[in-house]
Specification:
29 strands, about 25% helix, globular
Length: about 700
């Protein structure tokens, strides 16, 4: 996709941790020009001092998506400057597949190549970004600490030689649409106050979901230059005044809170004048009140620090996107005059969404939150959340795929998401036929994978090929779909049911997830549907026949006359014995995939429990758990849609999502107030609301 450009990076540094490289070039005019650009890990494009774009769209290891950006509208009289800021993270993550760093770009006018990497760009180790920092999260990369300096950054940075990069990816088109980069400003500040260090306050030193090993990629404790996340936890704040308008002068030991009104997703942006040499820390949260700021329990370090020279006009924007509902700006030292604070959006262009009128006011607010949640999580691929991970998880994608097609009438993001999985190359880290649970990503914790998530991949591919993008050749997916089925077949027991599946078995975020061994009945209902999907896609009659046998046998073994049991375990004689564990989620697995008729008289008690939300379910001698948000609740609303139970679905949707909308304007990972409060699969709520309004 390039005529002359080659991938390059700072000589000898393409495998260095958190390496900030900036490329610079000048050209006489940008009239009628187009820039083709890609990089790894990420780039930020600045033209004539103005932000233009962030990228690239992520894809599979060994590949790179190329952005095509028209620069005509950025043309200035006289000389034009192009600045490309690249960070090569070179660490393990769940949001990218680890590769060595590179950048490739080419400025063209028609068939003429004006500038290209490999010839025309000067490059600098950019000392504006501090390298030796902590991880932002285990699932993403490094946090951000910036030096804000006077004058030309090149004067205080090290000029470096660019060399051809060893990483020579296969170039792909972007596929997905360009995100919005709109500015949304806080309308003044919500409150102000003072803070003092209090050593008695508890500190969670490192906030990650799993241990970040040296191999996974980190700086050692004695290498890290500053710890703003730890520092902020031991500052005792005291509100001294209510809110006001900008500008506002803040001195050492003073802070302000900033309220965006609901979760916004994008680049944290602010402007100020440094009246003295200053150290400013910004921390941000998805769920709290401005007067009672609290970092949410999301396992990421939501903090950015700025070390600012005296006299600088500050116009800063975070390099990576984050989510922010409420923020605090704290002056650790020095004095500044703050003139603005806001978020430059990084989301799916909502003008592309199909406009629908929702008559019920409460449902309309939930629908709007579903749109926002989708927009935040459907950029270059389907992400679980736009904060802690930005990871492309299977199963999540099944529901987000339905949401995209409903909300947009297209499958543009799903096209790219599934292409990434098709391009995944087996390297022996997983069993043959297994796909990663999220991708692009790196394997971690003993090459963990989720067998059930691979099953959801088969179901998603079936719907995608037969309902959302019928022009795609199904043969492109034959190897991955059939590979999964063949992997699963090796775990069938004498009843034909799956038993003792390896790695991380996942049914939903509840106690149901501790009832997965030895034979998990919800998983086997899902397996029946996988066999139906794969068999119908590729005309494999034995899989279609087996599907009905698995569904029938699973129902026969798991139904106790009232509800479906979740699992059977081996006794001392190696005989499978049903437990008394029943999850609400398990009932919906049976309803959706068990080929059963809920109106059959033998299921009358189960139907009553569903309509009563299991309020009168006798738990004597049983273990029972209601659904959590994922995936049990989404199975529930899907099952209610299939049953045509509009009124019950309406009350269920309102009671489950209503409080979320009031708190954050988005829909959450859990029904509890922890984790991500902006999770992509939740956009499926829009599909349910349309069913309620139009059935």
């Amino acid at each position: 996709m390039f005529k002359k450009a080659i991938p390059v990076f700072s000589e000898g540094e393409e495998n260095s941790l958190n390496y900030p490289l900036t490329l610079c070039a000048k050209t006489a005019t940008l009239k009628d020009t187009t820039l083709y650009i890609t990089a790894f890990s990420f780039y930020r494009l600045i033209v004539n001092g103005k932000f233009v774009a962030s990228g690239p769209a992520r894809t599979a290891k060994g590949y790179a998506r190329v952005d095509e950006i028209e620069l005509d509208r950025y043309n200035a009289d006289g000389e034009n400057s192009i600045e490309i800021q690249v960070v090569g993270y070179n660490c393990g993550s769940l949001s990218t597949a680890r590769q060595s760093s590179f950048v490739a770009c080419e400025l063209t006018r028609g068939d003429e190549v004006l500038l290209y990497t490999g010839r025309d760009f000067d490059a600098y180790l950019d000392h504006r970004r501090v390298r030796e920092v902590e991880r932002y999260s285990a699932q993403r990369h490094f946090g951000e600490v910036w030096r804000v300096i006077k004058g030309d950054f090149k004067e205080s940075s090290d000029k470096v030689e660019l060399a051809p990069a060893s990483n020579r990816p296969i170039f792909l088109p972007r596929r997905v649409s360009v995100p919005t980069y709109d500015m949304k400003y806080a309308d003044g500040y919500a409150s102000r106050g003072s803070f003092l260090y209090d050593g008695s306050l508890p500190v969670r030193a490192i906030r990650t979901s799993f241990y970040v090993s040296e191999e996974w990629g980190r700086f050692e404790e004695d290498e890290v230059l500053t710890h703003p996340y730890r520092w902020i936890q031991q500052q005792r704040r005291e509100k001294t005044a209510d809110g006001g308008s900008f500008p506002i002068t803040l001195s050492e030991g003073e802070y302000i809170t900033l309220d965006m009104g609901h979760i916004e997703c994008g680049f944290i942006s602010w402007s100020a004048k440094a009246l003295e040499e200053s150290d400013v820390v910004i921390t941000y949260s998805e769920l709290c009140e401005p007067d009672d700021f609290a970092l949410t329990d999301i396992n990421c370090q939501n903090v950015i620090e700025y070390l600012i020279e005296k006299g600088v006009d500050v116009n800063e924007q975070s390099f990576e996107p984050y989510t922010c509902n409420v923020a605090i700006l704290m002056v650790r030292s020095g004095r500044i005059e703050l003139s603005s604070f806001g978020i430059r959006t990084y989301e799916y262009d909502r003008s592309r969404l199909i406009r629908r009128k929702i008559k019920d006011g409460e449902l309309a607010r939930i629908y709007s939150a579903a749109e926002a949640t989708f927009a935040h999580n459907a950029l270059d691929l389907y992400s679980d959340c736009p904060s802690r991970e930005r990871a492309g998880w299977l199963c999540d994608s099944f529901f987000t795929g339905r949401a995209e097609y409903f909300l947009t009438g297209k499958s543009t993001v799903e096209d790219a998401f599934l292409e990434n999985y098709r391009l995944y190359e087996y390297d022996g880290k997983f069993p043959k036929g297994v796909l990663p649970m999220c991708y692009p990503s790196d394997e971690h914790e003993g090459n963990k994978f989720i067998p059930q998530w691979d099953m959801w991949y088969v179901l998603e591919v079936k719907e995608y090929l037969t309902e959302r993008n019928t022009s795609v050749d199904k043969e492109l997916f034959r190897e991955s779909v059939c590979g999964i089925v063949e992997f699963l077949e090796a775990y069938e027991n004498s009843d034909g049911l799956l038993q003792d599946l390896p790695s991380w078995n996942f049914v939903e975020w509840s106690s149901a997830n501790s009832w997965v061994q030895n034979v998990n009945y919800p998983t086997n209902f899902l397996y029946a549907e996988v066999l139906r999907a794969a068999g119908s896609l590729y005309g494999v009659e034995k899989w279609l026949t087996k599907a009905e046998m698995v569904a029938s046998r699973t129902a026969e073994l798991s139904f106790d006359g009232e509800v479906f049991i979740d699992n059977a375990v081996l006794d001392s004689d190696k005989k499978l014995i049903n437990t008394r564990n029943s999850s609400e989620a398990g009932q919906y697995y049976a309803l959706l995939f068990g080929n059963m008729d809920i109106n059959d008289a033998k299921y009358s008690r189960l139907k009553t429990h569903i309509f009563e939300n299991f309020a009168n379910f006798d738990l004597t001698g049983r273990e029972f758990v209601p659904v959590n948000a994922f995936i049990g609740f989404y199975l529930k609303i899907w099952a209610l849609m299939n049953m045509g139970e509009r009124e019950l679905l309406c009350s269920t949707v309102k009671s489950f999502f209503g409080g979320m909308v009031e708190s954050t304007g988005t829909l959450w990972e859990y029904k509890q107030r922890h984790g991500s409060h902006d999770h992509g699969f939740a956009a499926f709520a829009a599909v349910a609301i349309d069913f309620i309004e139009n059935t």
